């Protein structure tokens, strides 16, 4: 009886003082920490919960910056720079670089070259990694395409060898892969709830601290705003399109940074954007780029043949194609209710 009175008294204390933090199923609301910085040619913002979150985020930042140092195409100290200037010789690389390259090669094969990790000579000719964007001549692109082809990349254990003139570009998978590594660091530090925004690539660890799913905004290809919201936990959401990084020539023609490896020209098809949802960032990043290259029909066909991910494909003709596994979790924003929504089934 006495015990009951004490419990009741404590309960009353919480009500009277407005202390309600212990009412959620996951225990007390944990301290939120946040860190923002520039890396991998984009702005990055990491948020995590828990008493050790601040230290953990610092470590995640160091991890991302370390990977950037290895994979930058412009930093002369980077491993990718060394490979790209190896003149056909074999180069020893770190475990991480060998790992991401192996993954990129596997995805290049699986997407039949839509993802092309040796696209750099072409990307560079367009000036996408510099301030001097330009439209190369058709002949120049045809010549450069002779140096493009993932099948000619030799990778064994930790050594990489390219044919003379070939150059790698991990831009289509690097941020997703770095996100996975950052999540690993956070997990090792005991973090169970975090949200990472790596230049618009979203990577989430666990649920929100109160046990609810995160509400993740899907980027719209039309006005750079949010197309809709998906309720998710423990996964990555990554969008690709030619709406963000591009330039216009003197006639106002727009050239985007995702290249069709068959032609050497920026992708020009029926798609405006591709969003991929999967457990790992590297997979989302590789597939968002590759499915954007494929165009609507081939992208849908690819999804039907391959498990483990969901997709939202937006067409230039105002269609929104959403795969069955994610449909129930997605809410379209009112501003976009004019889009025609199609469910994609297996
Ligand atoms: P973002 O970097 O804006 O998130 P992506 O993940 O789609 O976009 O990657 C695009 C980058 O990948 C380009 O800037 C370029 O460096 C490189 N790239 C362009 N076309 C291809 C391609 N077909 N395959 C692989 N990498 C590509
Ligand atoms: Mg990508």
Write a concise keyword list for the protein shown above:
346 residues, alpha+beta, nine-stranded mixed beta sheet, three-stranded antiparallel beta sheet, 17 strands, disordered N terminus, binds adenosine-5'-diphosphate, binds magnesium ion
Distinct helical segment count: 10
> Which percent band covers the strand fraction?
25-35%
Distance between the termini: 61 Å
Q: What's the total count of β strands?
A: 17
Shape: globular
What is the average per-residue confidence, as pLDDT, rounded to a whole number?
Answer: 92
Query: Strand order across the biggest sheet?
Result: 1-2-6-7-10-13-14-15-17
Percent of residues in helices comes to: 25-40%
Low-pLDDT stretches are: 1-25
The whole-angstrom Rg is: 23 Å
How would you sum up the major sheet? 9 strands, mixed
* Ligand roster: adenosine-5'-diphosphate, magnesium ion
Order of helical and strand elements: HEEHHEHHHEEHEEEEEEEEHHEEHEE
Q: What would you call the structural class?
A: alpha+beta
